[in-house]
Specification:
The protein has five helices and 15 strands. By secondary structure, it is α+β, with helices and mostly antiparallel strands.
Length: 278
C-alpha cells in the first residue's frame, strides 16, 4: 500500500509483476489539501472527509487550536478509514501480507491507528510518488523476500515432518485424493511446472492431456496465492487444463493453503508436496 497524508493506492503482485487494486470502496482516495493547511478555526468534517457525508459512517470532527493539531487529527482519521477499508475488503478476503510504502512520519502515524494483522513489520520508508511502478515492484520484493524465504523454510520443514508421520505426500494421485476430501492443509506447487490434463471434480480422476509444440496454442496459468507465480503452459486442447492448477483450485475450495515454490526450493521432484490435516 502506497500512502501519503491525502492519498492511498493499493497494489497486488509478486517478484515478477505488480498490478493496481481497485479501491472503489472509497468515495474518493483524495482528501482536499486545504484540510491540512487551515489553522485556528473550527472545522466540521461530516463522514470521512473523503466524499459524500456519511460514506463511511456519520461523524462530526471538531478541532480547536493550531495547524499541527488539526493536521494530525485529520491525518489519523484518514488513516483509520483507509486501514478499515483495506482490512475488510482486501486483507481479510485475500490473506495476503501488506507492505506499507510511506514516508517515515506517515509510517508511524498509520501503524499507531492500524488494526490490520496482515501489516508487515518490514516497510519502505520512502515517498511512493518518487518511484516508478517497476521500481516499486523491485523494492517491495526486496523488502518482502526475507519473510517469504523464512515462511517457505517453515512450510518445507512442516512438510518433511508430516511426511515422516504419514501426514504428507509428494505422490500426485494420493495428493489429489486427499485434496478432494479436504485433507490437504498446505500444498506446495513447483513454479513453472506443468502437468497437462485435468481433474474430474466428481471422481478425483486425473485425465491426461498433451503439451503442444505449437507456440500459438500456448496459454498461461496462474495459481493465486501469497506468492502468485505465473505457470506458463502450452496445452494442445483448450479443454485440457494443467493438473497442478486444478489441484490447487481444489485445495483452495476446501480452505487449504497453496504456495507456489521455485524449483530450487521444492522439497520434492514431483511438482507437489502436500501436508495433510489428518
Amino acid at each position: 500500500m502506497c500512502l501519503t497524508r491525502h492519498e492511498a493506492k493499493l497494489y497486488e503482485g509478486n517478484r515478477d509483476s505488480l498490478d493496481p487494486v481497485d479501491l472503489s470502496e472509497l468515495p474518493s482516495t483524495t482528501v482536499t489539501p486545504a484540510l491540512f493547511t487551515e489553522r485556528n478555526q473550527t472545522v466540521a468534517s461530516h463522514g470521512t472527509g473523503l466524499g459524500p457525508a456519511g460514506a463511511a459512517g456519520p461523524t462530526d470532527l471538531h478541532t480547536h487550536g493550531g495547524k499541527s493539531d488539526g493536521v494530525d487529527i485529520r491525518r489519523d482519521h484518514f488513516f483509520r478509514v483507509i486501514d478499515q477499508i483495506v482490512l475488510e475488503h482486501h486483507s481479510r478476503p485475500s490473506g495476503l501480507p501488506l507492505l506499507l510504502v510511506a514516508l517515515a512520519d506517515h509510517q508511524v502515524g498509520f501503524r499507531a491507528v492500524s488494526d490490520n494483522p496482515a501489516l508487515l513489520a518490514a516497510d519502505l520508508a520512502i515517498n511512493p510518488d518518487a518511484l516508478t511502478l517497476d521500481q516499486l515492484r523491485a523494492k517491495a520484493w526486496g523488502a518482502v523476500e526475507p519473510s517469504y524465504q523464512q515462511r517457505l523454510a517453515g512450510l518445507v520443514e512442516n512438510y518433511g515432518l508430516g511426511a515422516s508421520r504419514q501426514l504428507g505426500s509428494d505422490d500426485l494421485a494420493e495428493v489429489v485424493r486427499a485434496a478432494m476430501t479436504g485433507r490437504v492443509g498446505t500444498l506446495l506447487v513447483q513454479a513453472d511446472r506443468v502437468i497437462p490434463g485435468r481433474l474430474d471434480s466428481a471422481t478425483g480422476r486425473i485425465e491426461p492431456g498433451e503439451l503442444s509444440d505449437d507456440p500459438g496454442t500456448a496459454r498461461g496459468h496462474l495459481v493465486h496465492d501469497a506468492t502468485g507465480r505465473m505457470k506458463p503452459g502450452a496445452l494442445s486442447d483448450p479443454g485440457v487444463d494443467d493438473v497442478l492448477d486444478d489441484l490447487a483450485e481444489a485445495v483452495l475450495r476446501m480452505k487449504g493453503e497453496v504456495v507456489v515454490v521455485p524449483a530450487e526450493r521444492m522439497p520434492t521432484d514431483t511438482g507437489v508436496a502436500a501436508t495433510f490435516r489428518y
